[in-house]
Amino acid sequence: MGINHDQVTTWMASNVGAVAPLTFELIAGGRSNLTYRVTDATGKQFALRRPPTSHVLPTAHDMVREHTIISALSPLGIPVATPLGLCVDEAVNERPFYVMEFVEGAILRDRRQAEEAFALGDRFRIGANLAQTLAQLHDVDVVSAGLGDLARHDGYIERQIRRWRGQYEQMHVEGVDHGGLVESVGDQLAANIPTQQKVAVVHGDYRLDNTVLNEQGQVRAILDWEICTLGDPLADLGLLLVYWAEPADGTAALLGAAPTTADGFMTRKEVLAAYAQHTSLDVSQVGFYQAFGYWKLACILQGVFARYSAGATAGDTGSVAEFPKHIALLAETAKRTLEEA
Known about the structure:
This protein has helices at residues 5-15, 63-73, 90-93, 111-117, 124-138, 156-170, 181-190, 234-243, 268-277, 286-309, 323-340, and strands at residues 23-26, 34-39, 45-50, 83-87, 97-101, 200-202, 211-213, 219-222, 229-231.
């Protein structure tokens, strides 16, 4: 299941104070890097992150990079799980991995969970806090934080389009053909890129179910930093709005009965306004970034589907078999959103 039980136990006992014996549980929901809940003999819990078990892209799934990012952000008050240890000795578990605190709280992956975890009158402020937390992340001085060398500071969207298009093409699955739609939308995006206003820490997959919330609906920890880099902060905002589904959205069902379709949540426009209140950035061209978000998600889902087809998801298959038609719908939505913007 991706864990060498005896060797990882020995390493955790020596490096993070875990008390043997340990139990390892794959946390449902992760279809790329794998996350495990680790419980030691005293009942203390940890979170362990490692790359997929196979079909690993050469520039992705970098545990050292991910650990470096959260280690830099944690002292600045950005809500992340506290990093506890990094193992780069591949003799221990075949691939590098790191261990961090296990943050208790609500992770809202669908509407039912949102309705069960938060009363109707408490859901509105979740969007406000999520937007404010994103603005806080984007306000980090990347040089002062020690992340200035994480990536180039310019040309973020251009690089992203090249990267995701390349990965989309690399992750081809025999028998699945979208008729050039993803490529043509990528061309349209590349021809209409807004000027980058600043360089910021860009999470790359900032959405409600990549956060842990406390009982008041505030973000306790931002999760899944595997595609974080430096670049245009509005890319994060656009993707947040992509995932902030409303009941009438054509992609709402695709996104898995999105939690934000429950009564009481902010609208997408209200989330945008909440972010705008906490930033000096001009958000008037956010439509482009939403289109880019839909398109990027199509490329990501192609990679997930390819890894699923190769059997690299450690048993967490979910509804991945439906992804080919979802990829086409996302690309079509990106095309329409870009034209409207």
